[in-house]
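hiii so my PI (J.) wants the whole complex modelled not just the main chain, which honestly fair. so below is everything: two entries, each one labled with what it is. i double checked the lines twice but i was tired so who knows lol
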Amino acid sequence: MILYEHDTSGNCLKCRMLLNELGLSYESVSVDLFRGETRTDEHFARNPDGRIPVLELDSGETISESGAILLYLAEGSDYLPSDRLGRARVAQWMFFEQNRVEAELAVARFMRLAGRDRTMPLAYAQRLERGSDALEALERGLADGRSFITGETYTVADIALYGYVHCAGDAGTDPRTHEHLAAWLDRIEARPGFVNDLAPFPDYASQRPI
Amino acid sequence: MILYEHDTSGNCLKCRMLLNELGLSYESVSVDLFRGETRTDEHFARNPDGRIPVLELDSGETISESGAILLYLAEGSDYLPSDRLGRARVAQWMFFEQNRVEAELAVARFMRLAGRDRTMPLAYAQRLERGSDALEALERGLADGRSFITGETYTVADIALYGYVHCAGDAGTDPRTHEHLAAWLDRIEARPGFVNDLAPFPDYASQRPI
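here's the output for the full assembly
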């Protein structure tokens, strides 16, 4: 398998986290989203949306969207329940993550790290406010004392959420001010199979349009 | 089953579309997102994120996030492939939809219909630009002449995408300027089981904070 990815991307980190947990070997090909390498004809052929991560299977087929890659890789493993309702719960938090965490906090994080919080203050504030509200929702989801977001088992929903929740401080809101969220982060980071090799943005990140 | 929903919500429309295709009966309970009814303790108990739609099963269990509800209901039907790669393709476009269509175009649509495009012009412009880019991605995804987004079969990925793509004009970008996207919309709207009962926003919609 080949994972087209970039070391600065939380969405790509999620894939690396699961691949490491599963002990799967793969080739990593770096595609620099800050240098426009995700928006070439070559990459559009892998993913019509021109983004990363993209997983290329040995058959040559490609799967994009971190959530779809996680669900594909986790099939049949302990990281994805086999029962219908259990799968729905995992999917629920993964859709929540893409809609409420990634689209708000990851964008707010990019804007803040690239100085757009000063040039587009209301746009930044809206992303941050909606993203902070998502962290409160997550805190409510964990408030009954469960170990992981869908219960006592660590699943791809936790991995998906970890990607941008753990670095929400970069966006302007510290996730560890939430009691249950802080304990959940600790629990994930204490796992034997845990990796977090998310790289800082390069100097030229601010040149990327958004 | 009970569907907690609102007639103005594209995310709720998706559930109604699939329920109608499947011929399933359910009770509809209206929860007015513009009057704060999704942010009560009663509704937080159904969905920690305080949003709609929420599907309550006969067992009393609840599932939120339109994508998770669609995947749950479609299990074992023609609207969701049974093979691993086919499911991954459906999931790919459903995550794309929540991250790139819903989070950008549905928010831009709300902002424009509620007059926020004038009070927060850069925030609105950013949502619209990113959402318009998502429509271009979708056009690329359909450009090989396929009938539906994952191939020749109508799946929950098409239903999920239809929810906010068909009304992207309200957000400020006409989806029908894209050739393949226009044909795809026509194909969905010509289906015997098609319903679109999306209601206009009420007069008091602009009072909702965002």
